[in-house]
Amino acid sequence: MNALIGRTRPDALQRNLLRKMLASQVFKFGEFTLKSGQKSPIYIDLRECFGHSDLLILMSEGLSSMVTESRVEYSGIVGVPYGALPHASVVAGLYLQKPLLIVRKEAKAYGTKKLIEGLYQQGDRVILVEDVVTTGGSILEVVETLKNEGLVATDVFCILDREQGGRERLKEAGVNLYSLFNMETVMAFLASVNAINDQQWAEIVKALNLKYETVSRFEVSKEEEDLNVLPFTNAGRTSLQEREALTTSPLNHKIISFMKKKSSNLCLAIDYTTTEQILQMVEKAGPFVVAIKVHSDIITDFSESFTQQLVQLANNLEFIIFDDRKFADTGNTTKLQLTGPFKIAEWADVVTTHAVQGVDSIVPVFREFINNPAYRLSGVLLIAQLSTKGSLTNIHEYTKKAVQIADENRDIVSGFITQTRISEFSDILNWTPGVNLDAKNDSTGQQWRGVEQAIEIQQNDIVIVGRGVTSSKEPIQQLKRYRQTAWESLTKEENEKIDHN
Ligand code: 5BU
């Protein structure tokens, strides 16, 4: 790896913005023909941000900071039509609180016939806000119009400098360009988080005739290593009441009723290997959790009597039985595994499945079991993102496909196993493993983060905790601590909303 660490490292706001842009599909990969006729393997569609208010806000915040830091003096802000108009409005109206000017592409044939709308006087100095600068052509046209109206414009603030000669052309015309990102920063980010590989880097460099000889990457800190730091969707969590009313899944109805009754959004992962140890823990932990998760295939003395006792405890103590079996095979094999020696479909309320085998190998098989009252199984949790370091589910395309499978089959997919909120459908519950209040990682790839990150920032619903409780000397004390922290995190927003009303 030819690292150019430092040179192109974006700051925290930029990194946050780039991550959001990646998650919101601003960067599109494929084969595109640009306005210039050039072919490009990447297309940066900044207009995606009109649909994501958090992106529009972050971009406007970045543009505003650049303007302030530049110390350029100006009395008005001009948005270059049309793509930059929303940004210019937010920057002028909200952040910098200066008059907004709009330059028409053509003069109106009626009324004032003005080419420039807004509050200004001859001789005023204005700045320009633009989204993407390629050759600088549109900016020079706007500068010319402004000049003809007696306005002075020598500074342009843009989100992306595509490095296609715009900066140089503007400079020749006496116009300074300030950019939030240039192509190299964008590409260094994409390479650093493995969204593009070295070959894609080379293809982009060639197609856009860029001058970089080596792949440039910056160091991604431990916390940032994984792309799933922020939610995929802006559709925030609605209240439990609303979600209860929305969900048609009997399983989720049951889970939400347990959550409310027990003030708990906790699932305990009991990875003990003997039935005695597991049952002892279930008896003590049952009252505080909404679900108990087991791995049936790690239990050395697995028996039918074990599952009978487990079912009885679940019925009495009101929790969901979750077998984390992670199906990932043909539909036929999944069917055999559900009914095989462990008879999973008979005692588990919910199981996990990977999405890798594709929708046709998942949905019909599980639907058959879930709709059959002879089986206890009443929902599946689709694994959209794993908690492990370097997980291949960090490839966003994969997660998006998993989300699509779930969104379209909400009668059987009652939840996701995920790191961050990914679906806009709030009736699908987001279960999240990789939570520990006292440790960051184990020696075999697990990555843990705290409850606040998992529930408040990443907007998950149910915390899956294992060793944080089960390896502790005082497991029930720890369990209560996790329950309280997780429940406070989940209900905080709801309580805040109630307070505001
Ligand atoms: P831990 O002891 O808190 O690391 O236990 C987490 C449990 O969740 C454990 O049973 C794992 O098998 C399970 N898990 C996970 O940790 N990460 C994942 O991405 C998935 C499951 Br899927």
UniProtKB/TrEMBL annotation:
The keyword Chloroplast does not apply. GO terms for molecular function: orotate phosphoribosyltransferase activity; orotidine-5'-phosphate decarboxylase activity. InterPro entries: Aldolase_TIM, OMPdecase, OMPdeCOase_dom, OPRT, Or_phspho_trans_dom, PRTase-like, PRTase_dom, RibuloseP-bd_barrel. In the N-terminal section; belongs to the purine/pyrimidine phosphoribosyltransferase family. In the C-terminal section; belongs to the OMP decarboxylase family. Residues 265-482 form the Orotidine 5'-phosphate decarboxylase domain. GO terms for biological process: 'de novo' pyrimidine nucleobase biosynthetic process; 'de novo' UMP biosynthetic process. Its EC number is 2.4.2.10, 4.1.1.23. It comes from the Eukaryota. Pathway: Pyrimidine metabolism; UMP biosynthesis via de novo pathway; UMP from orotate: step 1/2; Pyrimidine metabolism; UMP biosynthesis via de novo pathway; UMP from orotate: step 2/2. The active site is at D324 (for ompdecase activity), K326 (for ompdecase activity), D329 (for ompdecase activity). PANTHER family: OROTATE PHOSPHORIBOSYLTRANSFERASE, URIDINE 5'-MONOPHOSPHATE SYNTHASE. This is Uridine 5'-monophosphate synthase. Gene3D superfamilies: 3.40.50.2020, Aldolase class I. Substrate binds at D271, K293, S387, Q446, G466, R467. Pfam families: OMPdecase, Pribosyltran. Keywords: Decarboxylase, Glycosyltransferase, Lyase, Multifunctional enzyme, Pyrimidine biosynthesis, Transferase.
